[in-house]
């Protein structure tokens, strides 16, 4: 029998109290008892996935010529940049992951402005400071520059200032009458930016304040000192967004991009610049909008199915296994409280496949209890007393419980690796909740159920074992 019974009971009560606290709260706080200062705070609101909450699902693909090999590191960098950009736009709980060698899957639960998300994702975000001499291009003009992505040097600027009109494929004739397109010199790119923020422009509108790195500040200072009253065009993906004149040397490495920005467009541009340019262009292959009505309906049906299943399980255990079954019912409720608290505390996103995995792991918890109780009944039939039967029941059932649950955990790991490799978020959610549920079920079956059963038997001391244990 268990020697430290009451110590185990106290631990179980503490864990149960903490789990219920998390389960019933959207935020948990711990205050200093002396001055009411908040010592700890954490948001534990339920996070619903795309299928339950609704939102946007996007499939992106590297926009490169067919047959071109895409570097895996560039795809991972692109995934990180897309994730950072959408996070900065306020799209929370998004899931961005690689799908194969050239594709990225993005899920944005609760997303309302899908156009803004798609725009910020597809922009390569290549910022250039371009020397156009005396020529002041209009906003929207496309300039050809000598900057090559990944290169640290630029070619010499062309001699004749010529520009291409927005979206035009016909170059403006040069002074000698030949058809030529001027290649303008890029003095530096967005890689020299150290910080980017939205600020107020000189006329009260939105603008973008930037600070350069030490190397970029030195280049900027030298260029502005040598080109007073000249034009320094600022382009994003070769398109002019601002073309100010240089009024004097700017030695501080700080500047401002002005233009016809709204607060929203300024913030979107700042996000692009802050998180760098995509190493490879991306195109949208498929988008899918999931409405919240469908999600709410799915959630309600899932909860109803879960409640019905739980009631049936509790009735079965109580009727068939009698006293041990009732103890197991308490243990299963304890298991559900812990699992849900872990999901909330560690910000796991609940999806329909995840809920299915959780319900399946409940079956694993019952499976362990059934193995133990059946072995317990066999020991009682063989003539052992209650104390011996309980000890032998747990000891001899352990190998079967261990092997079955270990197999479930290994299977969950394989499914998770598969889901990660192929972008199958449904498979990942199912495998994660299944594995977590199996681990918690082991704890409840071996530790909680046994402790509660011994406590009940010590205080209740049943005499009619045939009735109370169903033998």
Overview of the molecule:
It contains eleven helices and 16 strands. Helix 7 packs across helix 8. Residues 150-179 have low confidence and may be disordered. It has helices spanning 5-23, 50-53, 72-88, 114-122, 214-226, 263-274, 292-345, 352-381, 386-422, 425-460, 465-469, and strands at residues 27-31, 38-43, 47-48, 55-62, 95-99, 103-109, 127-133, 144-145, 183-189, 193-200, 206-212, 231-236, 239-242, 254-261, 282-290, 349-350. It folds into three domains: 5-39 and 291-469, Multidrug efflux transporter AcrB transmembrane fold, CATH 1.20.1640.10; 55-122, Alpha-Beta Plaits (2-Layer Sandwich), CATH 3.30.70.3400; 127-261, 2-Layer Sandwich (Gyrase A, domain 2). The chain is an alpha+beta fold and 471 residues long.
- Main pleated sheet: 5 strands, mixed
Q: Which CATH architecture of the largest domain is right?
A: Up-down Bundle
Number of E-state strands: 16
DSSP summary: helix tally? 11
- One letter per element, helices H and strands E, the order comes to HEEEHEHEEHEEEEEHEEEHEHEHHHH
Question: Biggest sheet: strands side by side, in what order?
Answer: 8-9-7-12-13
Name of the level-1 CATH class of the largest domain: Mainly Alpha
Give the mean pLDDT: 80
The CATH superfamily label of the largest domain reads Multidrug efflux transporter AcrB transmembrane domain
- Classify the helix fraction into a percent range: 40-55%
Distance between the termini: 21 Å
User: What is the CATH fold-level name of the largest domain?
Assistant: Multidrug efflux transporter AcrB transmembrane fold
Described by its quaternary structure, the protein is single chain
Strand content: 15-25%
